[in-house]
TrEMBL record:
It comes from Glycine max (Soybean). PANTHER family: DIENELACTONE HYDROLASE, ENDO-1,31,4-BETA-D-GLUCANASE-LIKE. GO terms for molecular function: hydrolase activity. The lineage of its organism: Eukaryota, Viridiplantae, Streptophyta, Embryophyta, Tracheophyta. This is Dienelactone hydrolase domain-containing protein. It comes from the Eukaryota. Pfam families: DLH. Residues 29-177 form the Dienelactone hydrolase domain.
Amino acid sequence: MSGPQCCSNPPSLNPTGGGGHVDKVGGIDSYFTGSPHSKLAVLMLSDVFGYEAPNLRKLADKVGAAGYYVVVPDLLDGEPFNPQNSDRPFPAWIKDCALKSKGVSAIAAVGFCWGAKVVIELAKSKLIQTAVLLHPSFISLDDIKGVDTPIAILGAEIDQVSPPELVKQFEQVLAAKSGVR
C-alpha cells in the first residue's frame, strides 16, 4: 500500500460481477475467466480488497478475452487483509499445482499492491515463467536479488512504500542480471 489513501475508499465488493465463474481449486475459491483450453495462463493476485473487487474482475475478464486462461485466487480467504494474520492459504493452493494439472505450459503472475509480494515469492521459487508487479508493496532489494525470471515493475510516482527511488534500485539490481528483463 502506498499510504492511507489506498484503504480510505475501498470498492464495493460484488461477488456476482464479471464474465467468469467462481470455483474451488486446491480448496480455495478462485475466479476463472477466459478459455480453459488455452495453454497460456495468467495468475492475477489481488490487492488488500481481495478477489471480489469489481475492477480486478473486469481486468481479468479483459485479459481472458485476449485468449488467456485467467485465475484470480481468493488469497484472503474471504476476509480483507489483516496485517496481524499472515497465515494465508496460498501455499496449499500452489502445492496442488492446479494450473499445471490442466495442461497449462506457462504461467505469468501479476501482483497488485500486497499481491506483488506473493508474486515475488513465486518468481524466486521459479514456479512461474514471468512476473508483473503493479504498485508493489513490501518488496525489498533482497527480494529483487532473488528473482531469476523476467519481470516488469510498474510503480507509482507518489508511492510512499515503494517510491520511485526504490523502484530505480530494483531496476539497477535487475539490469545486472542476465536473462532477467
